[in-house]
Amino acid sequence: MSGIKRTVLFAHLQDIGVPHHLGPAIASVTAATTEALIIVLVSQLFHTGESTSTTVLTYVYVKATKAAQDLGKVLLDISVVLKDPSESFPSNFGNGMDMCFRIQDDPPVPHLPDSIKTLPQVFVVPDQTTEAHLQHSVCVPPNCDASPSSYPVVALGGTFDHLHAGHKILLSMAAWIASTKVIIGVTDDELLRNKSNKNVLESMAVRMEKTRSFLQLFRPDLEYEIVPLRDVYGPTGWDPNIQALVVSMETLPGAASIDNKRSAESLPPLRTFVIDVISSESEKLDHEDMEMLKQTKLSSTFIREWIVKNAT
Questions:
Q1: Residue 288 falls in which region: left (phi positive, over 0), alpha (psi -120 to 50) or beta
Q2: What residue ranges in the chain does DSSP mark as E strands?
Q3: Interhelix angle for 23-32 vs 50-70, to 10°?
Q4: DSSP secondary structure string, 192-204?
Q5: Any bridge partners for residue 178, and if so which?
Q6: SS3 for 305?
Q7: What confidence tens digit (pLDDT) does each residue in 173-207 have?
Q8: Partners of 41 in the beta sheet?
Q9: Which residues of 34-68 are buried (b: 16+ CB within 10 A; e: fewer)?
């Protein structure tokens, strides 16, 4: 089966360890999809804290992205959504989808909109050997951080060009720890004049729209304020209502500058969360997972190079 433009895959998780048993299903659905894939992970445990959710997101995004890249489908739009079974889906969820994939023997997904129920349904088989092993071996450590598990207003910034898995993990974790609002600074076009292959770099308007669309898919209940970023601070340099900042290792130096700026302006300090996709979960991902992650190119620079190289 191949050549299906837009697909959605639903999978239930019994725990929030690394879902190795879904690997073959993710790879096969990715291989069958040509334009966009949404992977919906359903679990009652998706409220236990940001660290374990990062592990799940990292594995699933990397598995799907690596499968797509191996097949030359670098521009395949892959999104992962975390869902508690008690949560409803937006009425427009699944609009434009062509096929729904389910994991064989999974329980029904509650609260599905008609746009999903009416799609052709295909069941895929998980790796049952791995699943049985993981049921006995996975242990999720308790969260020993005494900090709050959520913050009313969370901020982050970035270029978000050709929105990819690395961006989406960062955006997802910002939305995951927010209870009311996420402020996203998107780097202004003027600051990107020296980027490589800038002729295929997306405009700020496109980058903003894609960022908003993804966040509304991931958590439609939050407010999203997306603003042009013309310096390292953005709203974090003046807004007293921001409580937390999400950064990648690439943007971590900016966090120190923001701390100094807020201190100079007598603004409350921010709780900083560093999402390091490459190494922060290394103690939870096995050697094979880490090798897969290292071989997967989560980079806008790589995507632009690929576009230029494959231009006809």
A1: alpha
A2: 4-12, 33-42, 77-83, 99-103, 121-124, 151-158, 178-187, 223-229, 244-248, 271-275
A3: 50
A4: GTTSTTGGGSPPH
A5: 151
A6: helix
A7: 999 999 999 999 999 988 888 888 989 999 999 99
A8: 11, 82
A9: bebbbbbbbbebbeebbbbbbbbbbbbbbbbbbbb
Write out the two tokens for 224. Answer: 């999203």
Percent helix, strand, coil in the chain, to 5, is 40, 20, 40
- DSSP lists the bridge partners of residue 78 as 37
**Residues 213, 219, 224, 230: is their CA dihedral positive or negative?**
negative
- Mention every residue, 6+ apart, whose C-beta is less than 8 A from residue 295: 66
Residue the block writes with tokens 């019994």: 14
Q: What global pTM score does this model have?
A: 0.88
Q: So what's the pLDDT on residue 264?
A: 96
Q: How many CB atoms lie within 10 A of CB 253?
A: 11
What percent of the chain has a predicted confidence (pLDDT) above 70?
84
C-alpha span between 229 and 236 (Å, rounded): 11
Give the residues across from 39 on adjacent strands: 9, 80
Amino acid at 277: V
Q: Report the alpha-carbon distance of residue 37 to residue 40 in Å, rounded.
A: 10
pLDDT, position 278: 52
Which one-letter amino acid corresponds to residue 247? V
Compute the C-alpha angle 222/228/232, nearest 5°. 100
